[in-house]
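Re: export button greyed out
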Amino acid sequence: MSIPTRFFISLGRHIITFLYFLGGLSNLSLKAVYLTFTPPYKKDRIIEQAQKAGYESFPIVSLVAIFIGFIFALQTAYFMQRIGSEIYIASLVALSVVRELGPVITALVVAGRVGASITAELGSMQVTEQIDALETLATNPVKYLVVPRFVALTIMVPVLTIYANAVGILGSYLICVYKLGISPGMYLKVTTEALAYKDLFTGLFKSVVFGMVIALVSCYEGFNVEGGAEGVGRATTRSVVTTFIMILAADCFFTALFYFIFP
Amino acid sequence: MIELKNLHKSFNEHKVLDDLTLDIKKGTTAVIIGRSGCGKSVLLKHIFGILRPDKGEVIVDGQRICTLNEKELNAVRMKMGMVFQGGALFDSLTVGENVGFGLIEHNNIPRIELLERIEESLCLVGLCGIDNLMPAELSGGMRKRVALARALCIKPQLILYDEPTTGVDPITADSINDLIKDLHDKLKVTSVVVTHDMKSAYKVADNIAMLYQGKIIAEGTPEQIQQTKHPVVHQFINGLATGPITETLEQFR
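Workaround output, generated via the alternate export path:
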C-alpha cells in the first residue's frame, strides 16, 4: 500500500473512532440527564460522591489556587512596576482568576484527581463483570453509578471554583500587601470595583459545564474498558487526556460566546 | 422455562452464536458444556437480556426478552439469579450488602426481615455470620458462594451459573456441586450451569448440551452424552488433545 492510501485509511479509522466516541458520549449524557430526574432519588450516594469528589479535593485545590495567586501577582508586577501602576495588579488578578483561571484550573485538578479515579473504578467494575451483575440484579448501571457522580460533580466543581477564586485572590493579596506595599484596604477596594456579577456568572457557568464533562467522559471511558488491567490503565489515560481537551475546547467556546453576548 | 430460538450473535464479524436453538424445562438442571471462549457466557447474557441477539428469540417464563421495556425486563430479572465466574461482588459494599443488594434496591422490606433474609441466604451456602466482611477479605471459593447467596436472596425461580467450579480447589468444587444439587432438590429452582468441568457436569445435570461453533451439537442425559458416538463430543468429554476440535483449529493456523 502506498503511503497516501495508508494515511487516509488511518485518518478514516480515527474519524470513525471519534464519531463512535461522540455518539456513545451523547447517548450516555442523555440517559444520565433523564435518569437524574426520574425517581427514586438516592441522596446518600450523591452525598458520598460529593464527599469523595468535592470535599476531599479542597486541599489540592487550595494549594494550586494559592500558588496561582502568588505567581500571577508576581508576573503582572514585573510589568506593572515598569509603568508605575501596581495597584491595577488587583483588578487584573481578580478578573483573570474569576473569569478564567479559577474555573479552568479547578476543573483540570478535579479531572486529574477525580475523573481518573472514576474511570479506574468503573473500569475495574466492568472488567470483573460487576456492571453486568448490577443489570442481573435489575439495577440500571447508569442510574446507580453515573447519576450520583454526575450530580455530585455538577454541584461540587462550581463550589470548588468559588473557593479557588477566593484562595487565588488571597494569594495575590498576600504578595501585593506584604511584598509590594499596597495597602490592604486599597487592594480590596480595587478588587471589588473590578468585579461585576457577570464575571462571576460566566466563570461559574463554565465550571458547571466542566463538572458535567468530567463526570460523563470519565464514566463513559470506564464503562467501555476492554481487556483487563491493561485496558483499565489505557482507559484512565484516555479519560484524563480527553477531559483536558474537552475542558479547554469548551472553555474557548464559552469564553468567545460570552465575549459577544456580554460585551 | 427458557426457550432459545435460532439465536445469532456476532462481535466484529466474529460469529459467536450461529443459529442456536435450545429448550430448558422448568425444574430441571441443564448443563451447557463447551471449550473456553466458545460463547457460553454470551449465551447466559442473552438469557438475562444484557446482550441482545442479532437475530432470533429468547423466551424466559413465557416472556419474549427482546421485546420488553426496561421495567418489564427488570421484573423478569427479579425472578432470576446469576452467579458470575469470578463472583462479581461489589467490592465497595460488605458481604451483607452484596447479598441483600436486590432486596435493598427494589423491595422496601423492614430492616429486621432484610437481615434475616441475608443471614438465611448466607447459611444456605454454608457461610453464616460473615456479613460484615468485605469481599476483598474472602477466598476465591467463598466469593463464589457469596455470589450464589446474592443470587438466592431474591428467591429466584431460575439460577444461572457461569463456570461455578472453575478456579477453586477440588474439594470446594465438589461442595459447590453439592450446593447446586441441593438447591435444585430443596427449592425446586431451574438451573442452567455453564462449565467445562465434566465431573461437575455429570454430577449436577439432568440434561447436558454441548455448544460448539455457535451451535448446540449434542443434547441428552449424562448417560447419553457419555456414550455418544459424536466425534467432537467424544473428544471434549474425554479431554483428548487430538481429535476433530483441535484439527479444525489446526486448519485456521
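The two ends of chain A are 54 Å apart (CA to CA). The button fix ships in the next patch.
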